[in-house]
Amino acid sequence: RARAVILATGGGGRLFRVTSNSWECTGDGLWLALRAGAELIDMEMVQFHPTGMVWPPGVRGLLVTEGVRGEGGILRNRDGERFMSRYDPARMELSSRDVVARAIYAEVQAGRGGPHGGVYLDISHRGKEYILRKLPGMRNQFLSLADVDITQQAMEVAPTCHYMMGGVKVEPDSCETAIPGLFAVGEVAGGVHGANRLGGNSLADLLVFGCRAGRHAALYAENSAPRTVDEATVEQEIARVMEPPARSTGENPYMLHRELQALMTDHAGIIRHGKSLLEGLEQLRAISDRARACAAPGGPHFNPGWHMVFDLESLLGLAEAVLLSALAREESRGAHTRHDYPEERRDLALINYHTTLLGDALVVTPGAAYPMADELQQLVPEWAETPSR
Fold this sequence. Notes:
This protein is of the alpha+beta class. Helix content is about 40%, strand content about 15%. The two termini are about 40 Å apart.
Protein backbone atom coordinates (compact mmCIF):
# COMPACT_ATOMS: atom_id res chain seq x y z
CA ARG A 1 0.00 0.00 0.00
CA ALA A 2 3.07 2.26 0.10
CA ARG A 3 2.87 5.42 -1.97
CA ALA A 4 6.55 5.12 -2.93
CA VAL A 5 9.09 2.29 -2.68
CA ILE A 6 12.90 2.54 -2.88
CA LEU A 7 14.81 -0.62 -3.78
CA ALA A 8 18.25 -0.69 -2.14
CA THR A 9 18.78 -4.45 -2.08
CA GLY A 10 22.25 -4.79 -3.64
CA GLY A 11 23.29 -7.12 -6.42
CA GLY A 12 23.37 -10.84 -7.08
CA GLY A 13 26.95 -11.97 -6.58
CA ARG A 14 25.76 -15.28 -5.16
CA LEU A 15 25.22 -16.35 -8.76
CA PHE A 16 28.87 -17.39 -8.86
CA ARG A 17 30.89 -20.01 -7.03
CA VAL A 18 33.53 -17.55 -5.77
CA THR A 19 32.23 -14.17 -4.65
CA SER A 20 33.05 -11.41 -2.21
CA ASN A 21 29.32 -10.77 -1.72
CA SER A 22 27.46 -11.58 1.47
CA TRP A 23 25.07 -14.55 1.57
CA GLU A 24 22.00 -12.33 1.10
CA CYS A 25 23.12 -10.89 -2.28
CA THR A 26 20.75 -13.04 -4.30
CA GLY A 27 19.31 -10.47 -6.71
CA ASP A 28 15.91 -10.24 -5.03
CA GLY A 29 15.37 -6.55 -5.79
CA LEU A 30 16.26 -7.05 -9.45
CA TRP A 31 13.80 -9.91 -9.82
CA LEU A 32 11.07 -8.06 -7.90
CA ALA A 33 11.43 -5.05 -10.18
CA LEU A 34 11.46 -7.16 -13.33
CA ARG A 35 8.32 -9.06 -12.27
CA ALA A 36 6.59 -5.77 -11.50
CA GLY A 37 7.26 -4.44 -15.02
CA ALA A 38 10.53 -2.50 -14.72
CA GLU A 39 13.48 -2.95 -17.09
CA LEU A 40 16.99 -4.14 -16.37
CA ILE A 41 20.02 -2.89 -18.30
CA ASP A 42 23.66 -3.98 -18.73
CA MET A 43 23.17 -7.37 -17.10
CA GLU A 44 26.16 -8.75 -19.00
CA MET A 45 28.46 -6.42 -17.07
CA VAL A 46 29.57 -8.42 -14.01
CA GLN A 47 32.78 -7.27 -12.37
CA PHE A 48 35.28 -9.79 -11.04
CA HIS A 49 37.67 -8.27 -8.53
CA PRO A 50 41.10 -9.69 -9.39
CA THR A 51 42.14 -10.58 -5.85
CA GLY A 52 40.06 -12.65 -3.47
CA MET A 53 41.15 -15.24 -0.94
CA VAL A 54 41.08 -18.83 -2.17
CA TRP A 55 42.00 -20.81 0.94
CA PRO A 56 40.70 -22.11 3.29
CA PRO A 57 37.31 -22.90 1.70
CA GLY A 58 35.38 -21.09 4.44
CA VAL A 59 36.77 -17.71 3.39
CA ARG A 60 37.03 -18.31 -0.36
CA GLY A 61 36.16 -15.13 -2.22
CA LEU A 62 36.80 -12.76 0.68
CA LEU A 63 38.23 -9.56 -0.76
CA VAL A 64 41.93 -8.74 -0.76
CA THR A 65 42.08 -4.97 -1.08
CA GLU A 66 43.61 -3.33 -4.13
CA GLY A 67 45.65 -1.41 -1.59
CA VAL A 68 48.06 -4.36 -1.51
CA ARG A 69 48.91 -3.81 -5.17
CA GLY A 70 48.76 -0.06 -4.67
CA GLU A 71 51.42 -0.31 -1.96
CA GLY A 72 53.75 -2.29 -4.20
CA GLY A 73 52.40 -5.84 -4.13
CA ILE A 74 53.70 -8.07 -6.94
CA LEU A 75 51.76 -10.82 -8.70
CA ARG A 76 53.66 -14.02 -9.52
CA ASN A 77 52.64 -17.39 -10.88
CA ARG A 78 53.74 -20.70 -9.41
CA ASP A 79 57.02 -20.46 -11.38
CA GLY A 80 57.85 -17.18 -9.64
CA GLU A 81 57.33 -15.16 -12.85
CA ARG A 82 55.96 -11.62 -12.57
CA PHE A 83 53.42 -12.34 -15.26
CA MET A 84 51.66 -8.95 -15.57
CA SER A 85 54.45 -7.90 -17.93
CA ARG A 86 52.72 -10.09 -20.52
CA TYR A 87 49.31 -8.46 -20.14
CA ASP A 88 49.97 -4.78 -19.36
CA PRO A 89 53.70 -3.99 -19.31
CA ALA A 90 53.10 -0.28 -18.75
CA ARG A 91 50.84 -0.49 -15.68
CA MET A 92 51.68 -4.00 -14.46
CA GLU A 93 49.84 -4.74 -11.18
CA LEU A 94 48.22 -1.29 -11.27
CA SER A 95 46.23 -2.12 -14.40
CA SER A 96 42.41 -2.00 -14.31
CA ARG A 97 40.41 -4.69 -12.54
CA ASP A 98 39.22 -6.43 -15.68
CA VAL A 99 42.73 -6.69 -17.15
CA VAL A 100 44.27 -8.07 -13.93
CA ALA A 101 41.38 -10.51 -13.41
CA ARG A 102 41.73 -11.85 -16.96
CA ALA A 103 45.50 -12.14 -16.53
CA ILE A 104 45.16 -14.21 -13.36
CA TYR A 105 42.48 -16.35 -14.99
CA ALA A 106 44.74 -16.94 -18.00
CA GLU A 107 47.70 -17.96 -15.82
CA VAL A 108 45.60 -20.46 -13.87
CA GLN A 109 44.03 -21.86 -17.06
CA ALA A 110 47.53 -22.30 -18.52
CA GLY A 111 48.51 -24.47 -15.55
CA ARG A 112 50.68 -21.84 -13.87
CA GLY A 113 48.45 -21.39 -10.83
CA GLY A 114 48.97 -22.27 -7.19
CA PRO A 115 47.72 -25.35 -5.33
CA HIS A 116 44.28 -23.87 -4.66
CA GLY A 117 43.62 -22.40 -8.10
CA GLY A 118 45.08 -18.93 -7.62
CA VAL A 119 48.31 -16.99 -8.10
CA TYR A 120 50.60 -15.33 -5.58
CA LEU A 121 50.42 -11.73 -4.41
CA ASP A 122 53.56 -10.75 -2.51
CA ILE A 123 54.05 -7.59 -0.44
CA SER A 124 56.66 -9.00 1.96
CA HIS A 125 59.51 -7.16 0.22
CA ARG A 126 58.12 -3.87 1.61
CA GLY A 127 59.13 -4.91 5.12
CA LYS A 128 57.16 -5.71 8.24
CA GLU A 129 57.05 -2.18 9.66
CA TYR A 130 55.71 -0.73 6.41
CA ILE A 131 53.03 -3.44 6.06
CA LEU A 132 51.88 -3.06 9.66
CA ARG A 133 51.51 0.68 9.12
CA LYS A 134 49.84 0.59 5.70
CA LEU A 135 47.98 -2.74 5.60
CA PRO A 136 47.20 -3.81 9.19
CA GLY A 137 43.77 -5.14 8.26
CA MET A 138 45.10 -7.36 5.50
CA ARG A 139 47.81 -8.73 7.76
CA ASN A 140 45.25 -9.60 10.43
CA GLN A 141 42.84 -11.07 7.87
CA PHE A 142 45.35 -13.53 6.44
CA LEU A 143 46.95 -14.34 9.77
CA SER A 144 43.67 -15.14 11.52
CA LEU A 145 41.82 -16.79 8.61
CA ALA A 146 44.55 -18.49 6.56
CA ASP A 147 47.52 -18.75 8.95
CA VAL A 148 49.59 -16.70 6.48
CA ASP A 149 51.80 -13.84 7.66
CA ILE A 150 51.91 -11.45 4.70
CA THR A 151 54.93 -9.68 6.17
CA GLN A 152 56.89 -12.87 5.38
CA GLN A 153 54.78 -14.91 2.94
CA ALA A 154 52.92 -14.43 -0.33
CA MET A 155 49.12 -14.63 -0.42
CA GLU A 156 47.34 -16.96 -2.82
CA VAL A 157 44.59 -14.99 -4.58
CA ALA A 158 42.17 -15.41 -7.48
CA PRO A 159 39.35 -13.39 -9.10
CA THR A 160 36.11 -13.17 -7.15
CA CYS A 161 32.70 -11.96 -8.31
CA HIS A 162 32.45 -8.52 -6.78
CA TYR A 163 29.92 -6.14 -8.35
CA MET A 164 27.12 -6.02 -10.90
CA MET A 165 27.21 -2.87 -13.05
CA GLY A 166 23.86 -3.90 -14.52
CA GLY A 167 20.61 -3.43 -12.69
CA VAL A 168 17.20 -1.79 -12.75
CA LYS A 169 16.93 0.99 -15.34
CA VAL A 170 16.30 4.34 -13.62
CA GLU A 171 16.10 8.00 -14.55
CA PRO A 172 19.39 9.59 -13.41
CA ASP A 173 17.82 12.73 -11.93
CA SER A 174 15.18 10.97 -9.82
CA CYS A 175 16.21 7.27 -9.67
CA GLU A 176 12.64 6.40 -10.65
CA THR A 177 12.03 3.23 -12.65
CA ALA A 178 9.52 2.75 -15.47
CA ILE A 179 6.96 2.02 -12.74
CA PRO A 180 5.67 5.28 -11.17
CA GLY A 181 6.55 5.38 -7.48
CA LEU A 182 9.24 2.67 -7.68
CA PHE A 183 12.80 3.91 -7.22
CA ALA A 184 16.14 2.06 -7.13
CA VAL A 185 19.58 3.05 -5.83
CA GLY A 186 22.95 1.41 -5.29
CA GLU A 187 24.02 -1.87 -6.85
CA VAL A 188 20.42 -2.84 -7.63
CA ALA A 189 20.29 0.10 -10.10
CA GLY A 190 22.02 -0.08 -13.46
CA GLY A 191 23.71 2.47 -15.68
CA VAL A 192 25.78 4.35 -13.10
CA HIS A 193 29.12 2.60 -13.61
CA GLY A 194 29.06 1.76 -17.32
CA ALA A 195 30.93 -1.39 -18.25
CA ASN A 196 33.54 -1.39 -15.48
CA ARG A 197 33.11 0.24 -12.07
CA LEU A 198 36.14 1.99 -10.60
CA GLY A 199 37.07 1.09 -7.01
CA GLY A 200 35.40 3.33 -4.45
CA ASN A 201 32.76 4.69 -6.84
CA SER A 202 29.97 2.78 -5.10
CA LEU A 203 30.25 5.19 -2.19
CA ALA A 204 29.76 8.20 -4.46
CA ASP A 205 26.91 6.32 -6.13
CA LEU A 206 25.11 5.81 -2.82
CA LEU A 207 25.69 9.34 -1.55
CA VAL A 208 24.61 11.11 -4.75
CA PHE A 209 21.83 8.86 -5.97
CA GLY A 210 20.68 7.86 -2.50
CA CYS A 211 19.99 11.54 -1.87
CA ARG A 212 18.17 11.91 -5.19
CA ALA A 213 16.10 8.76 -4.66
CA GLY A 214 15.07 9.84 -1.17
CA ARG A 215 14.06 13.34 -2.25
CA HIS A 216 12.05 12.25 -5.26
CA ALA A 217 10.38 9.34 -3.47
CA ALA A 218 9.29 11.74 -0.72
CA LEU A 219 7.91 14.20 -3.28
CA TYR A 220 6.09 11.39 -5.06
CA ALA A 221 4.58 10.14 -1.80
CA GLU A 222 3.41 13.63 -0.83
CA ASN A 223 1.52 13.99 -4.09
CA SER A 224 -0.06 10.58 -4.51
CA ALA A 225 -2.80 8.54 -2.89
CA PRO A 226 -2.34 5.21 -1.06
CA ARG A 227 -2.41 2.23 -3.41
CA THR A 228 -5.19 -0.31 -3.36
CA VAL A 229 -4.37 -3.99 -2.88
CA ASP A 230 -6.17 -6.91 -4.45
CA GLU A 231 -6.72 -9.19 -1.47
CA ALA A 232 -7.31 -12.21 -3.72
CA THR A 233 -3.84 -11.74 -5.22
CA VAL A 234 -2.34 -11.52 -1.73
CA GLU A 235 -4.02 -14.78 -0.70
CA GLN A 236 -2.84 -16.46 -3.90
CA GLU A 237 0.77 -15.41 -3.20
CA ILE A 238 0.55 -16.57 0.43
CA ALA A 239 -0.60 -19.99 -0.78
CA ARG A 240 2.32 -20.16 -3.23
CA VAL A 241 4.87 -19.18 -0.61
CA MET A 242 3.56 -21.77 1.84
CA GLU A 243 3.94 -24.68 -0.59
CA PRO A 244 7.68 -25.56 -0.06
CA PRO A 245 7.54 -26.16 3.74
CA ALA A 246 4.43 -28.27 3.21
CA ARG A 247 6.18 -30.63 0.78
CA SER A 248 7.70 -33.74 2.32
CA THR A 249 9.82 -34.54 -0.74
CA GLY A 250 11.30 -32.51 -3.57
CA GLU A 251 14.46 -30.83 -4.83
CA ASN A 252 16.93 -29.44 -2.29
CA PRO A 253 17.27 -25.67 -2.98
CA TYR A 254 20.83 -25.58 -1.64
CA MET A 255 21.96 -28.29 -4.05
CA LEU A 256 20.29 -26.53 -6.96
CA HIS A 257 21.98 -23.27 -5.93
CA ARG A 258 25.33 -25.04 -5.98
CA GLU A 259 24.61 -26.36 -9.48
CA LEU A 260 23.60 -22.87 -10.60
CA GLN A 261 26.83 -21.35 -9.26
CA ALA A 262 28.90 -23.95 -11.11
CA LEU A 263 26.94 -23.30 -14.31
CA MET A 264 27.41 -19.52 -14.16
CA THR A 265 31.09 -19.79 -13.25
CA ASP A 266 31.75 -22.15 -16.17
CA HIS A 267 29.56 -20.46 -18.80
CA ALA A 268 29.32 -16.76 -17.86
CA GLY A 269 32.47 -16.08 -15.86
CA ILE A 270 35.48 -13.95 -16.72
CA ILE A 271 35.85 -15.24 -20.31
CA ARG A 272 32.71 -16.03 -22.31
CA HIS A 273 31.93 -17.66 -25.66
CA GLY A 274 28.71 -17.77 -27.64
CA LYS A 275 28.54 -21.56 -27.80
CA SER A 276 29.18 -21.86 -24.06
CA LEU A 277 26.55 -19.23 -23.25
CA LEU A 278 23.97 -21.18 -25.26
CA GLU A 279 24.93 -24.37 -23.43
CA GLY A 280 24.56 -22.49 -20.15
CA LEU A 281 21.05 -21.34 -21.10
CA GLU A 282 20.03 -24.91 -21.90
CA GLN A 283 21.35 -26.17 -18.55
CA LEU A 284 19.75 -23.24 -16.73
CA ARG A 285 16.30 -24.04 -18.07
CA ALA A 286 16.69 -27.63 -16.86
CA ILE A 287 17.59 -26.40 -13.36
CA SER A 288 14.65 -23.96 -13.46
CA ASP A 289 12.25 -26.82 -14.26
CA ARG A 290 13.56 -28.79 -11.30
CA ALA A 291 13.34 -25.75 -9.02
CA ARG A 292 9.54 -25.70 -9.36
CA ALA A 293 9.46 -28.77 -7.15
CA CYS A 294 11.72 -27.46 -4.39
CA ALA A 295 10.90 -28.64 -0.89
CA ALA A 296 11.83 -27.18 2.49
CA PRO A 297 10.28 -29.65 4.95
CA GLY A 298 10.19 -28.81 8.63
CA GLY A 299 7.48 -26.16 8.78
CA PRO A 300 7.76 -22.38 8.61
CA HIS A 301 9.71 -21.80 11.86
CA PHE A 302 13.55 -21.46 11.81
CA ASN A 303 13.69 -22.91 8.31
CA PRO A 304 16.44 -21.26 6.20
CA GLY A 305 15.80 -23.74 3.39
CA TRP A 306 12.39 -22.12 2.94
CA HIS A 307 14.13 -18.75 2.36
CA MET A 308 16.55 -20.38 -0.05
CA VAL A 309 13.70 -21.57 -2.26
CA PHE A 310 12.81 -17.96 -3.06
CA ASP A 311 16.41 -16.75 -3.14
CA LEU A 312 16.91 -19.42 -5.81
CA GLU A 313 13.88 -18.13 -7.73
CA SER A 314 15.49 -14.68 -7.92
CA LEU A 315 18.90 -16.09 -8.83
CA LEU A 316 17.51 -18.23 -11.64
CA GLY A 317 15.79 -15.21 -13.22
CA LEU A 318 18.92 -13.12 -12.78
CA ALA A 319 21.11 -15.85 -14.30
CA GLU A 320 18.98 -15.95 -17.44
CA ALA A 321 19.20 -12.16 -17.77
CA VAL A 322 23.01 -12.32 -17.52
CA LEU A 323 23.34 -15.16 -20.03
CA LEU A 324 20.96 -13.59 -22.58
CA SER A 325 22.59 -10.16 -22.28
CA ALA A 326 26.10 -11.64 -22.58
CA LEU A 327 24.97 -13.52 -25.68
CA ALA A 328 23.49 -10.36 -27.21
CA ARG A 329 26.62 -8.20 -26.78
CA GLU A 330 28.86 -9.53 -29.53
CA GLU A 331 32.02 -7.68 -28.51
CA SER A 332 34.43 -7.37 -25.56
CA ARG A 333 34.00 -4.24 -23.46
CA GLY A 334 34.95 -3.53 -19.85
CA ALA A 335 34.05 -6.45 -17.62
CA HIS A 336 32.41 -8.35 -20.49
CA THR A 337 34.88 -10.46 -22.47
CA ARG A 338 33.78 -12.62 -25.40
CA HIS A 339 36.47 -15.02 -26.63
CA ASP A 340 34.68 -15.20 -29.99
CA TYR A 341 34.39 -11.40 -30.23
CA PRO A 342 37.65 -10.12 -28.67
CA GLU A 343 37.49 -6.51 -29.95
CA GLU A 344 35.36 -3.53 -28.94
CA ARG A 345 32.82 -2.50 -31.56
CA ARG A 346 32.52 1.23 -32.05
CA ASP A 347 28.87 0.91 -33.12
CA LEU A 348 28.02 -0.69 -29.74
CA ALA A 349 29.70 1.96 -27.58
CA LEU A 350 26.43 3.80 -26.96
CA ILE A 351 24.19 0.75 -26.79
CA ASN A 352 22.71 -0.70 -23.61
CA TYR A 353 21.02 -4.09 -23.62
CA HIS A 354 17.62 -3.98 -21.92
CA THR A 355 15.95 -6.98 -20.27
CA THR A 356 12.17 -7.13 -19.90
CA LEU A 357 9.77 -9.84 -18.76
CA LEU A 358 7.04 -10.54 -21.30
CA GLY A 359 4.69 -13.11 -19.85
CA ASP A 360 7.02 -15.84 -18.61
CA ALA A 361 9.82 -15.05 -21.08
CA LEU A 362 12.82 -12.79 -20.65
CA VAL A 363 13.54 -10.66 -23.71
CA VAL A 364 16.79 -8.73 -24.34
CA THR A 365 16.82 -5.84 -26.81
CA PRO A 366 19.37 -3.11 -27.68
CA GLY A 367 18.61 0.53 -26.87
CA ALA A 368 20.42 3.85 -27.17
CA ALA A 369 22.37 4.92 -24.08
CA TYR A 370 21.15 7.85 -22.01
CA PRO A 371 22.57 11.03 -23.60
CA MET A 372 25.60 12.55 -21.91
CA ALA A 373 25.22 16.10 -20.60
CA ASP A 374 26.71 18.82 -22.79
CA GLU A 375 29.24 19.92 -20.18
CA LEU A 376 30.53 16.34 -19.87
CA GLN A 377 30.75 15.91 -23.64
CA GLN A 378 33.16 18.84 -23.66
CA LEU A 379 35.41 16.88 -21.29
CA VAL A 380 35.16 13.71 -23.41
CA PRO A 381 34.82 14.96 -27.01
CA GLU A 382 35.39 11.54 -28.58
CA TRP A 383 32.18 10.33 -26.88
CA ALA A 384 30.07 12.72 -28.98
CA GLU A 385 31.70 11.39 -32.14
CA THR A 386 30.81 7.76 -31.38
CA PRO A 387 27.90 6.66 -33.60
CA SER A 388 24.85 5.20 -31.87
CA ARG A 389 22.45 2.85 -33.59
